[in-house]
Write a structure and sequence with these properties.
With 252 residues, this protein is α/β, with parallel strands linked by helices. It has nine helices and seven strands, in the order E-H-E-H-E-H-E-H-E-H-H-E-H-H-H-E. The structure holds nicotinamide-adenine-dinucleotide.
Amino acid sequence: MQINLKNKNVIVTGASRGIGKSIAELLVSCGANVALQYIRNKNRAEKVKKQLGPKAVLYQCDFSDGLEVGSFFNKVEKDFKRIDVLINNAGIAINSDPDKDDIAWVDDWLQTMDVNLNSVALLCKKAIAHFRKSSGGIIINISSRAAFRGDTRDYMAYAASKAGVVGLTRSIARAYGKEGIKAFLVAPGFVRTGMAQDFIDEYGEDYALENIALDRMTEPEDVAQFVAFLASGLANHATGGTFDINAGSYMH
Ligand SMILES: NC(=O)c1ccc[n+]([C@@H]2O[C@H](COP(=O)([O-])OP(=O)(O)OC[C@H]3O[C@@H](n4cnc5c(N)ncnc54)[C@H](O)[C@@H]3O)[C@@H](O)[C@H]2O)c1
């Protein structure tokens, strides 16, 4: 089955690299127009835009600043007029040793929450308001296996932020389904990106591959294909669902 996203307007956050880039590439190839958010590497973002052509529009925004998050959404809304799908993909995983001093550890914790949970919540709030004025829409939030399985001691904030996204997404699905708003959770395990590489450098590739049922690590394209399917509306009756993409490493 060919996924058709013609005339759909989609926001993809963290789209200049990794999973977000792969999602943007696939959505454009399925006919969507995409608003691509990047944080600071303009050259890299311009390269992605050049590759994707006129269907992609770039927006710079740092999600550690709540005010910037709101104006980013307002700009996209002004440019695109109608938004059909919001994909919250941007995220950080800060290695934070609990033995470090309280102030430094709390700094890491708050930064993680700002990017991984608080900005996602605000973008969802704004998308809900937009969708209620139009004919509904779809929210896809990228959580993590860590939200369910837990993580190592250095990544407790990461796991907690991704678990927050679970409660947020399920509440949206329950509260707004009657108004045509669908919300999905995608929970990847290790995916071969820059983020995973930091972890692999620290703990080794064997750790990353431990317990995987399949014979290779998950690639960004494996996540993108599922996200494109959710964005198409073909899975709307699975709203509120959590979709594990972890090569069979954790089932719940
Ligand atoms: N790679 C994995 O193993 C893995 C596993 C589970 C979940 N995830 C989740 O998938 C999503 C994508 O991760 P990835 O692996 O592609 O990582 P990545 O580091 O390659 O990409 C993360 C993206 O988030 C953006 N970003 C980071 N900080 C930001 C900020 N302050 N403001 C705005 N944007 C910011 C970056 O610019 C980048 O585009 C993340 O939410 C991550 O938590 C990844």
